[in-house]
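Two folds, back to back.
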Amino acid sequence: MENNTAVDLSFSVPEELSGLRLDKAISEYYEQISRSGITRIIKDGGVLVGGTPAKASYQVSTDDRVEFSLPECGIPDIVAEDIPLDILYEDEGMLIVNKPKGMVVHPAAGHYTGTLVNALMYHCRDLSGINGVLRPGIVHRIDKDTTGSVIVCKNDKAHREIAEQLAVHSIDRRYRAVVHGRLKDDRGTIDLPIARSRNDRKKMAVDPSGKRAVTHYEVLERFSEYTYVECRLETGRTHQIRVHMTHIGHPILGDETYGARRSKVHAEGQTLHAYFLGLKSPATGEYIEVTAPLPEYFRNILDKVRSV
């Protein structure tokens, strides 16, 4: 007997996907779904944008609401896995996890196991469903090779409240990074708009047509060829710190995407750590501050750059 069970999926287009064709935007947002499957649903008139069927060539804009149904058999099994979690904070509405280097936040093509979501499904009985069955609990994410604090929501109320705090930039987010070169000023602000790169759609770039992006930085320690910095996000654009630091001539050590250059110190992936979060707990209404200790790999990198 044919299985007609379907799962309803929907998302609001994030700014980093704005300007893409509809089929490409869905493919990038839901990496777990085959491109051919997406194309078939669009051809059948099954993908709605703002409540209206849209063609594959439709160019999406930020905050467009995209909705469609996918046969349950087309969704890969996301299983709970007993993977240790370094939980920095937890209450009834959310938890903050210290993500290790190399861990993908949610399942995607080639990464259906071993992700943060797999571990969370084992730890939590319930997770928010706003981002659907493929991204339960995930309200924001950091890159695979970026370490540190990730906020996870246990219910939809918490998800909406954290999403609102992110939208109005009221969450204090600070990162630690090692960058190439010696920054001249002890502190500074980079206020440059960021958009998807016109030359490589997988990358972001400083572009006058982009969204305003503001990064505040402060030098923590200078070395002969590198600088240890803290970066505070006033806005939260995709790859913001990596793009901004590269643009001012100080790419992050190990960043092969934005700042690849010859280096006396080798790093596997960008040396970037989500160090501090200050935010209002949706469950208690209280302001909390959470610090993620520097991981061993980062401390080792600091020892190496000090000795160069």
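---
second:
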Amino acid sequence: MTRAVPAQEALRNSMAGHAAAEARRVRPESLPYTFKSGDLRMLVTPAVGLDWNDNIYTSKTGKEDDFILRPELRFNLNYPISRYNLLFLDAGFGYDHYFEHDELSTWRLGSGSGVSLDIYVKDFWINLHDRFQYAQDSAQEAAVANTARYGTFENTVGLSVTWDLQDVTLSAGYDHLNVISPQSEFKVQDRAAELLFARAGLQVHPRVLVGLEGTASFTKYQQSYLNDNTGYSLGAYADWRPGAHFRVQPRGGYSLYRFDQTSQFIKADDRSSSWYADLTVTHQPTDILSYSFSAGRERRPGVQSDLIEDTYVRWRGNWGLLKSVTLATSLSYEHGELDGNTVNGNFSETYDWFGGSVGLSYAFMKAASVSLNYRLTLRASDEATREYTQNLIQLQLTYRP
């Protein structure tokens, strides 16, 4: 659900790429497929969901509800072009149809969609990629209220190179990011950014990796509402694996940003610096239980201000209650502060955003499952008109060979 001004945006981007690479480590021949031709395997997963949302405009008063039909088709393709060149495609395409508010109906690109090519040359791993996503879901952006139209299309294209020297791993990468808002009220978000990162890790123990990482970014907005900026960050990270199914990843550092006076509405802060931190823990103690936890502090691009500073806590858990029944839960909390200058004038805000969900899934056939999900979103603010509560219930049918 999707969210660091420049330098930290580059760090987030590199971490997303690393996570995607880890997901591809599964041997392609072990993956399920709908269609197979030689070494080419494609899995097609259709799904359809029906939501009921009791507050589609994320407002405190005058709440409006609606039913939303959400058909989706996801494609997973993998093809070994040669022994050392692997092509991957993972893309989800969907449509959100509002029954009573058809003006809000829109297309959707699933989170994690993208195409990737892995090339291995001796000790070098080269990855070329294009990642993209779009969803209109205002309740999933903690800084937004009083709208149903918030959503940005994000496309990240670039490459990364990793040099594996056994106990030492060196990596670097470059990405070009485009952010585009289909809705006119959020066109202030439209921007392009050049993102760079470099990382050096040392295996100090068979189960412990430590290292240093740095990023740089250069961001330009298409309109003169938010200020163009340049950012740098430098920090340390570690990866501790005390067991086969237990992983702890701390990271932290210092970031520096410079804002150019390109906005006609917001006075640029010439230099802005702060620290950042994150702790992520993943654990699967049994075959039927797994969970992940993360907490940290960051700075990220504002929606209508140059900057948002926030602290966050996120938790997810999955239980296999019975052979064909799975329970999924999640909790999220974010405390954020908006910069005192925005495109709407001298406006500042401190908010607390809470999200929680619970879902029960039942595989009633070998390749088909039905799930019932509930999501609660609460937003409190020192600006009373920007508080809201939203309840969402979803029934979804998925077919997966």
